[in-house]
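User: Show me a protein chain along with its predicted structure.
Assistant: Here is one chain, sequence first, then C-alpha cells.
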Amino acid sequence: MSKRKTMTGKELGEKLLLSVRQMKAGEFARRTEISSPLAVTARERTGLSQSEFAKLLGVSVRTLQDWEQNRREPSGAAQTLLKVAAIRPDAILETAHY
C-alpha cells in the first residue's frame, strides 16, 4: 500500500490560492463541454414549454422527454422537424397558427 502525505493547512491554502489564480487567468487543467440533445435545443429556441412543444410536434410529452434525456432517438422525420425547429424556430411556430 502506498502512503499518502498529509498536507498541512498552509500547503492546502497555498494550493487553493494557486488554483484560484489559475482559474481567474483562464488556465484550466481540463475543459468539459456538454452538448444538448437536438430536442432540447429546438424546444429552447422556440421558447415553448415541453407540453406546448410536444403538442406542436404531435408527440406525447413523455416521448419529448425521452428525446431530451437521450433515452430514445427521434425517428428520421422527427429529427428533420427538430432540425428545422432548431434552425428556424419561427417557421415551426408559424405552423401552430396554420
